[in-house]
Automatic annotation (TrEMBL):
GO terms for molecular function: deaminase activity. Signal peptide: none annotated. One of its GO terms (cellular component) is cytosol. It comes from Streptosporangium minutum. Pfam families: Ribonuc_L-PSP. Belongs to the RutC family. This is Translation initiation inhibitor. It comes from the Bacteria.
């Protein structure tokens, strides 16, 4: 059974939390580093702490730049583990085990974070759509090493800058051209998606970066009947095997496509949690089946975020939560975006 642990300060904190599960470093299948500008300025120290913790275990790593953390320290670490560590696939040995490999465990394919760069550095400088397409192509290459096509992608999280907000809809064309698997019912299935704005990228000059998950199981769209998704290149939920991968949820009315509860974090969060619950219900799942929540909060919502604990527990029980501060979200009115994963017990 896959174990998702919430983000905690540093690799020392991650090691201590992993120990409480009875699992070992050799069981890890994915690592996410949420790094502030201070951590990026001293990233060599983060890398050294990672190598000391992993001790040679090859695992895909996603490094996510954030505007801030809701806990202490300059960076936080989120771990995913699976007994035995699943199967390692090395796609790009020249990129190193943590950036050029993936792991397949419990029908889920864990990819490393993808930046718009090759062995020589940044590619397509100044061209947002070309960088985004490059990241999708890179994801397809990684999946290809595991014998899978780009249709195996079940969820992407896009990291872009606030300055590219107006250009973000241009992601739709490469997604439509490159993505979309065929579900068990023979219909096309686009992966779930989230779009997060971060103004200090991991890679200088990067206008787009990507985190992605795939699956070896046939995908199926999960939609409670929201017609807005019929013309989009992502879906509210994608079920594959026993796992439901969901898009990022913000306080957007699916009927009117208008942002709601401007300036009110608690009201936005309840609206978001209710939307997630609707997708869960459509998949035959409950709040207690949520195995991972990542909450991206804007600076304007950060101070009130601790007040959401009771509301979140009412919807999702004791689901592990990783909460970080982003620069902004795609809709300026949004204070929070939540990206969930649920697993059928």
């Amino acid at each position: 059974m896959t174990v998702h642990l919430p983000a905690v300060p540093g690799y020392e904190g991650a090691a201590a939390l992993l120990e409480t599960t009875g699992l070992a470093v050799s069981d890890l299948v994915h690592v996410v580093e949420y790094v502030t500008a201070g951590a990026l300025d001293d990233y060599a120290s983060v890398s050294a702490a990672r190598e000391g913790f992993l001790g040679g275990h090859a695992v895909p790593v996603a490094t996510v730049a954030v505007a801030g953390l809701l806990g202490p320290g300059p960076y936080a670490v989120e771990l995913t583990a699976f007994p035995g560590g699943g199967d390692l696939v090395v796609a790009h040995p020249d990129a190193g085990f943590h950036r050029g490999s993936l792991r397949v465990a419990g029908e889920v394919v864990y990819l490393p974070g993808i930046q718009p760069c090759d062995a020589e550095g940044l590619v397509h400088a100044g061209d947002f759509r070309a960088q985004y397409r490059y990241c999708l192509d890179r994801a397809a290459e990684l999946l290809g090493a595991a014998g899978l096509g780009p249709g195996a992608l079940v969820r992407t999280v896009d990291y872009t800058a606030t300055a590219t907000r107006a250009e973000y809809p241009r992601c739709g064309r490469p997604r439509r051209e490159l993505l979309g698997g065929t579900g068990a019912d023979g219909l096309p299935v686009f992966p779930g998606a989230a779009g997060i704005l971060v103004d200090r990228p991991v890679l200088a000059g990067a206008m787009a970066a990507l985190d992605a998950l795939g699956s070896t199981a046939p995908p199926r769209t999960v939609n409670p009947g929201w017609s807005r998704y019929e013309t989009l290149t992502y879906r509210p939920g994608v079920a594959a095997g026993d796992t439901l991968f969901m898009s990022g949820f913000g306080a957007l009315d699916p009927a009117t496509q208008e942002a709601v509860f401007d300036g009110d974090l608690a009201a936005q969060a309840e609206f978001v949690y209710a939307g997630i619950a609707a997708v869960l219900g459509e998949a035959g799942l409950r709040g207690e089946d949520v195995a991972r929540l990542v909450e991206y909060v804007t600076p304007a919502g950060a101070a009130a975020h601790p007040d959401l604990a009771a509301l979140r527990t009412r919807y999702f029980g004791r689901a592990p939560v990783s909460a970080v501060v982003c620069s902004a979200l795609l809709r300026p009115e949004f204070l929070i975006e939540v990206v969930p994963v649920a697993v059928r017990a």
